[in-house]
C-alpha cells in the first residue's frame, strides 16, 4: 500500500506520524524495550500531545532477531497467531555503551546483530559484522487515513543490486523488486497477481530473510513506492517481524522453517503418478475402471486415483456422501481399486451447501461461521447458500473430522483439500478471533484439521493432503499444488514461476495440473507438461472439462507418460532422500537456481529452469518446436539421458523430442549409472 507522493510529500488522504527519536530504553528479563515518540524530544514540553511507538526486541532462535512494534496496545486483537517454534523466551544478548548523553545499544543472536542509539530513529542489522540492511528515518510510523483507518508501516532498506525473493506462491516475475504484493489469499488462477498461498516472508541476495509475523493483510512495497526500501504495512496497531541471517538462501530457509514448522514426510506412494476424474466430467465406476485398465494395458505405472467434486451430488458440496446413483457400492469399489494396487483420494472443501443434509445439522449445532447479527453467513459463490465450517470451534473440528473418518473407514486414503481462500471479514468467529486476521489464517486451521485426522487414523507415515491454499506454517501439511492454470505454454511457465516462488517461501513439496486445468490443450503441450510434471516432487494428471488420460491426445502421449513415470521411479531413491531432507531441514525438493547457486549472477533471474534437489538440473521445454535455451552453472555437466557432456558457466540452446529435455547432472554423478 502506498502512502507517499514522492520523496517529500505524504498523500493528501493520509497524515503521517513517523518515529523521530528513540527516547528511552528499558531492559526486561527476556526482552528489551525501546520507546520511540513521533517527535524529536528536546525538552519536557515535547513529551506532551504526541504519540509513541513501543519497540520490543527478542531473539526467538539463533541468528534470528525479532522486532515487535505497537502504537496503541489496547486496540488490537492478538488472535489468531501463527504457531512458532524455538527458544521463544530467549533474550538477545545486549550491550549498552554510553557517551555524550546517548546510549548505543547492540543486540546479538548468533552471528546476527542489531545496533541503534537513543536520539535517532535509525537501526542497522549486521551479519558476521557485515551490514545487511537498516531502518532509516521516515520509515516506521503510523499513517492515519482521513476516513479513520490507521496503518502501521515499517521497512528495511535495499542495497545496490539487492534482489528479493519469496512472498508465497506468486505467478508474477520471480524477482519481486518493483512489485506491490498484498498478502491476502484469493482464488484467481495462475494468470493473475493474486495468489492462493500468501506468505509474508522474503529473503534477499544480501544473505538475510524477513518474516512479518502478522496473519492479516500485509501490504509489501518491494522497492516500488520507495525504490530503496522493502516496505510493509498493516491496518492495525501492532506489527512484528523477524530478521533471519543465513547467510546462504538454503540456511535462511532452514532457519525460517525451524521457526514456523517443517514439512511432514509424505508417504512414498504419494510420489508416484496421480490420475483424477477431472472436474466437470461424467464418471462412474465403469468409467474409472476404463481409465485404470487403459493404464495397465499400456504398462503405465499408476499410484493414486483421485475422485474430484462429483463423487458427491451437485449442489450438495460437501455432504461427504457418495452419489448412490453413480457409486452404489463405495466400499466394494474402493476395495477393488485397492486390490489393483491403488491409493484413493477424494476431493473436499470446507464449505457446506444449503442443500446438503449436513447444513441443518451444522447450523443447529453452531458449527458454521456466523454474521455479527447471529445468523449464519451464506452466499452463492461456488455452491448455493453455502456456509463455512468454523474451525475455531473445537466441536466443529471434531464434527468435520467425524465425517471424514467415515470416508477413511470405507477405504479412502487421503484428501484433496480444495479452496479455503474465500473467507469473509464481516463475520463473528467462535473464539472471538479478529475477522480480518482470520481470512488468511483460515486455511491453516482447515488443513491442520484434516491432516491431524489422517495422522491419527492412518498413521504419521501415511498422512498426505493435496492442498491449494496456504498460510505460514502450512508447509507442515503437504502436499500443495499450483491451482487453476490454462492449457497453454505461457501458463505452464507461470505455473513453474509460482512453484519456485513457493519454494522460496519455505514449502518443501509442490505439484501442479499436468497439461493445464482449463481447456483441453494440444497433444504437444500435454507431452511437454508430462516431462515437467514427472520431474516435480509430486505428479498429478488433472483437468476441468475433459479427461486427462494420455490416449485422449495420441498414443505417443501414452509412451511419453510411461517413459517419464518410469524415469521418476528410477530416481525415487534420490527424490525420497530429498523428501527426508525437506522433512528434517525444511529445504525444498525443487529449488530455484538462485537458491542452489546464490553466487552465480546468471542464476538470479532464471525462472524457466530449476534444480531437483542439489544434483539434477531441469529445464522444461516451453515451445512447440522443441527448442529450449538453458543455462548451466560452472563445472562439467552430463545429460542424464543421453550422457552427452556440456560445459558449464554458459548458455546452451538445444532441440529436444518428447522423450527428452535439458536434464543435467555433474560429471561423475552416480545417478548416471542408475538411468
- Note the main sheet: 8 strands, antiparallel
Query: What is the overall number of helices?
Result: 12
Strand content: 25-35%
The number of domains is 3
Q: Got a strand count?
A: 41
Topology-level CATH name of the largest domain: TIM Barrel
- Class derived from helix and strand content: alpha+beta
Poorly predicted runs:
none
Rg result = 26 Å
Q: Give the second-level CATH assignment, the architecture of the largest domain.
A: Alpha-Beta Barrel
Distance between the termini: 51 Å
The CATH homologous superfamily of the largest domain is called Glycosidases
Which geometry do the CA atoms define? globular
CATH first level of the largest domain: which class?
Answer: Alpha Beta
Mean pLDDT: 97
Query: Helical percent range?
Result: 10-25%
Strand order of the largest sheet: 4-5-6-7-21-18-17-15
Amino acid at each position: 500500500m502506498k502512502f507517499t507522493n514522492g520523496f517529500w510529500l505524504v498523500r493528501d488522504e493520509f497524515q503521517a506520524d513517523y518515529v523521530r527519536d528513540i527516547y528511552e530504553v528499558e531492559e526486561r528479563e527476556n526482552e528489551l524495550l525501546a520507546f520511540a515518540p513521533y517527535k524529536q524530544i528536546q525538552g519536557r514540553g515535547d513529551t506532551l500531545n504526541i504519540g509513541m511507538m513501543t519497540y520490543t526486541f527478542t531473539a526467538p532462535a539463533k541468528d534470528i532477531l525479532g522486532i515487535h512494534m505497537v502504537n496503541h496496545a489496547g486496540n488490537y486483537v492478538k488472535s489468531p497467531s501463527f504457531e512458532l517454534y524455538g527458544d521463544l523466551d530467549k533474550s538477545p544478548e545486549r550491550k549498552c555503551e554510553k557517551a555524550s548523553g546517548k546510549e548505543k545499544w547492540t543486540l546479538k543472536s548468533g552471528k546476527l546483530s542489531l545496533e541503534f542509539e537513543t536520539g535517532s530513529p535509525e537501526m542497522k542489522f549486521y551479519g558476521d559484522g557485515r551490514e545487511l540492511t537498516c531502518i532509516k528515518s521516515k520509515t516506521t510510523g503510523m499513517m492515519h487515513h482521513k476516513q479513520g483507518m490507521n496503518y502501521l508501516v515499517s521497512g528495511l532498506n535495499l542495497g545496490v543490486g539487492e534482489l528479493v525473493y519469496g512472498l508465497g506462491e506468486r505467478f508474477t516475475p520471480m524477482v519481486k523488486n518493483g512489485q506491490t504484493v498484498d498478502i491476502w489469499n484469493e482464488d484467481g488462477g495462475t494468470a493473475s497477481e493474486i495468489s492462493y498461498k500468501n506468505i509474508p516472508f522474503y529473503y534477499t541476495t544480501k544473505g538475510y530473510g524477513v518474516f512479518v509475523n502478522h496473519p492479516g493483510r500485509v501490504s509489501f512495497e518491494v522497492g516500488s513506492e520507495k525504490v530503496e526500501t522493502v516496505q510493509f504495512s498493516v491496518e492495525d496497531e501492532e506489527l512484528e517481524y523477524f530478521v533471519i541471517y543465513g547467510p546462504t538462501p538454503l540456511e535462511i530457509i532452514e532457519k525460517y522453517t525451524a521457526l514456523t514448522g517443517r514439512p511432514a514426510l509424505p508417504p512414498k506412494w504419494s510420489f508416484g503418478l496421480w490420475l483424477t476424474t477431472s472436474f466437470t466430467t461424467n464418471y462412474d465406476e465403469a468409467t474409472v475402471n476404463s481409465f485404470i485398465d487403459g493404464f495397465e494395458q499400456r504398462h503405465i505405472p499408476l499410484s493414486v486415483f483421485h475422485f474430484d467434486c462429483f463423487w458427491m451430488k451437485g449442489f450438495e458440496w460437501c455432504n461427504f456422501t457418495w452419489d448412490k446413483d453413480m457409486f452404489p457400492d463405495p466400499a466394494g469399489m474402493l476395495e477393488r481399486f485397492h486390490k489393483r494396487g491403488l491409493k484413493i483420494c477424494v476431493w473436499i472443501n470446507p464449505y457446506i451447501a444449503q442443500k446438503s443434509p449436513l447444513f441443518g445439522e451444522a447450523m443447529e449445532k453452531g458449527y458454521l461461521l456466523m454474521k455479527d447479527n447471529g445468523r449464519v453467513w451464506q452466499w452463492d459463490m461456488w455452491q448455493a447458500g453455502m456456509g463455512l465450517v468454523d474451525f475455531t470451534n473445537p466441536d466443529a473440528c471434531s464434527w468435520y473430522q467425524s465425517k471424514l473418518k467415515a470416508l477413511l473407514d470405507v477405504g479412502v486414503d487421503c484428501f484433496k483439500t480444495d479452496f479455503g481462500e474465500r473467507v469473509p471479514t464481516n463475520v463473528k468467529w467462535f473464539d472471538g478471533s479478529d475477522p480480518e486476521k482470520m481470512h488468511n489464517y483460515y486455511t491453516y486451521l482447515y488443513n491442520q484439521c484434516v491432516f491431524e485426522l489422517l495422522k491419527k487414523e492412518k498413521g504419521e507415515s501415511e498422512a498426505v493432503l493435496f492442498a491449494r491454499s496456504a498460510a505460514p506454517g502450512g508447509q507442515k501439511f503437504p502436499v500443495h499444488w499450483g491451482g487453476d492454470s490454462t492449457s497453454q505454454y505461457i501458463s505452464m511457465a507461470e505455473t513453474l514461476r509460482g512453484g519456485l516462488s513457493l519454494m522460496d517461501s519455505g514449502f518443501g513439496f509442490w505439484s501442479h495440473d499436468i497439461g493445464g486445468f482449463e481447456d483441453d490443450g494440444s497433444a504437444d503441450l500435454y507431452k511437454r507438461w508430462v516431462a515437467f510434471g514427472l520431474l516435480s516432487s509430486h505428479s498429478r494428471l488433472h483437468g476441468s472439462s475433459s479427461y486427462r488420460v494420455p490416449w485422449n491426445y495420441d498414443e505417443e502421449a501414452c509412451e511419453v507418460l510411461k517413459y517419464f513415470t518410469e524415469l521418476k521411479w528410477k530416481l525415487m531413491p534420490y527424490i525420497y532422500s530429498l523428501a527426508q531432507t525437506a522433512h528434517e531441514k525444511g529445504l525444498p525438493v525443487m529449488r530455484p537456481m538462485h537458491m542452489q547457486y546464490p553466487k552465480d549472477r546468471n542464476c538470479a533471474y532464471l525462472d524457466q529452469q530449476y534444480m531437483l534437489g542439489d544434483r539434477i538440473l531441469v529445464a522444461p521445454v516451453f515451445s512447440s518446436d522443441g527448442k529450449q535455451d538453458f543455462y548451466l552453472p560452472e563445472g562439467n555437466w552430463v545429460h542424464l539421458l543421453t550422457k552427452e557432456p556440456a560445459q558449464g558457466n554458459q548458455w546452451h540452446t538445444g532441440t529436444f523430442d518428447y522423450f527428452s529435455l535439458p536434464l543435467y547432472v555433474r560429471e561423475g554423478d552416480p545417478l548416471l549409472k542408475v538411468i
